[in-house]
């Protein structure tokens, strides 16, 4: 590959080819809200406590630094409330080894971790939340994983097109 008369090395080509992925991460606002993320040092937190194998596999194997995340409040008023970025790729969730944590798992150990987490950094809190009811009526979101009947997965993929539509809703377009 050549750019402006310069031959690019393998590292540069890999960086150009790497495609960013998009995700939605759900949190019960009473447990951890976007306002809690705002208050976190540097707007960064670890996304711990996930105890679902499919969500764990996504965080462990698929989420990469630089991927973008729709921050979603589940519960009473389910809504997309902001945007974050993955800043640290999957690593063992140490809260599983802490019997005093909210979500311990005695089967997981430092030597044989079962659960993983990623770190995310706040990009922005939306001026106005985008309610689930509104998302259900938006053209182009018909196949969004979040909107599938019975979908409860707390970490889920979002297509680039869907991500862009949600961002345009947040900007009031």
Named at the architecture level, the CATH assignment is Roll
Radius of gyration: 18 Å
Largest sheet: 6 strands, mixed
* Domains, number: 1
Structural class: alpha+beta
Per the principal axes of the C-alpha atoms, what is the gross shape? Answer: globular
State the CATH class. Answer: Alpha Beta
Name of the CATH superfamily: ph1033 like domains
Fill in the CATH topology.
ph1033 like fold
First-residue to last-residue Cα separation: 38 Å
- The average pLDDT is 91
By DSSP, the count of extended strands is 8
Would you list the SSEs in sequence order as H and E? EEHEHEHEEEHEH
The count of helical stretches stands at: 5
As laid out across the biggest beta sheet, the strand order is 4-7-6-5-3-8
Strand content: 25-35%
List low-pLDDT spans: 1-6, 12-17
How much helicity do the residues have? Answer: 10-25%
């Amino acid at each position: 590959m050549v750019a402006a008369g310069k031959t690019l090395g393998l590292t540069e080509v890999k960086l150009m080819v790497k495609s960013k992925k998009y995700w939605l991460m759900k949190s019960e606002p009473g447990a951890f809200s976007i306002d809690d993320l705002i208050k976190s040092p540097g707007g960064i937190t670890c996304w711990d406590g996930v105890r679902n194998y499919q969500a764990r596999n996504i965080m462990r194997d698929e989420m990469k630094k630089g991927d973008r995340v729709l921050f979603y409040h589940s519960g009473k008023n389910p809504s997309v409330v902001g945007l974050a970025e993955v800043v640290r790729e999957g690593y063992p969730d140490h809260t599983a080894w802490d019997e005093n944590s909210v979500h311990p798992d005695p089967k997981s150990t430092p030597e044989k971790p079962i659960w993983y987490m990623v770190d995310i950094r706040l990009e922005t809190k939306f001026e106005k939340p985008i309610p689930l009811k509104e998302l259900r009526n938006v053209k182009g979101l018909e196949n969004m994983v979040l909107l599938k009947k019975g979908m409860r997965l707390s970490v889920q993929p979002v297509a680039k097109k869907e991500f862009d539509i949600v961002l345009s809703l947040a900007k009031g377009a």
